[in-house]
Amino acid sequence: MADVLNHGGDGGDEPPHEHANRLQADCQTAPAAKKRGPSRSLHLVKLFQSNGKRPLPIDFDTKEGTYLPTGENQKYFSRVVGTHVRQFVHPYFDRWANVPEEQKARATGCIYEFFDVNPRHYSKADYKLIVDGIEDTAARRYRQYKANVNAYIRDKGTAVPYRGLPVDVWEKCIERSSSKKFKEKMVEEREDQTQQASSSGVAVNEHDVVLKVLGERRGHRRSVGRVLRGTSRSHSSTTTLQDQHGTNQSTKATNALKR
C-alpha cells in the first residue's frame, strides 16, 4: 500500500506531516450517497470539526500483536475505510491487489486524514504492520462492496446502475458478473453450500456464496480478518476488527465536512 499519510494521497517522497489542518480535496468533495446514513457518521464529523479539523487520535494494539485500532475512536475506523473504498474504488476488479494504486491512494488517503496514524508513535516494524492492517481492512471492505454490487445485479437487474455508479463503471461490473468464469465459480460454490446445507439443515446463504466466489485473502478468516503468524484462533477471534454496523454506511461523514 502506498504510504499516503497526510500526503493528500500521492504517497510522494516528502515525509508525512504530523498533522493536517484540513482534509484533502477528495475527502471534502466526495458526493453523498442517496441513502440516509446512520448517526455515527455524523458524530464522527462533529468530533473532527471540534478537533479543529485535525486528525483524530487513534491507537493500535502493538502489545498483543493484533495491530488493530484501539481507543475511543476505533469504532469509527472501519466505517471510514468502507465509505472511502466505495467512493473511490471501482467494484469490478477481481481482488484488492488488482486495484490501481491511484484508486487505492485516494481511498486510503482519506483514512489517514481522519485519523492521526503517526509513524513517530511506533517502531518502524510496528508501523509497517499497522499500515498493512489498514490495507487488509480496505481489502475486506472492498470484497464486501463487490458482493453488494453482484447481489444488486442478481436481484434488481442491470437497467439502473447500483447507487449511481457511472455508466462505464457499471458496464464493467455487468461484464464481470456475466463472465463465464464468474458464473462457473458461482455454480460451484452454490453446489458446495447446498451439500453442506443438506447435511446441517441450514439454508444456503446466497450472500456467502458471492463472498466466497469473490475470494478470501490468504491469512484471513471470515468474520475474523487478518491473522498473524503464531496467533491462536481463539485469540484472533476476540481481538479483530469487526464490521458491527453492516455494509450500508453512508458518505455523509465526508460530505458534511464541506459545510
Automatic annotation (TrEMBL):
It comes from Forsythia ovata. Residues 1-21, 220-259 are annotated as: Disordered. The lineage of its organism: Eukaryota, Viridiplantae, Streptophyta, Embryophyta, Tracheophyta. Residues 231-240 have a biased composition (Low complexity). This is Uncharacterized protein. Residues 241-259 have a biased composition (Polar residues).
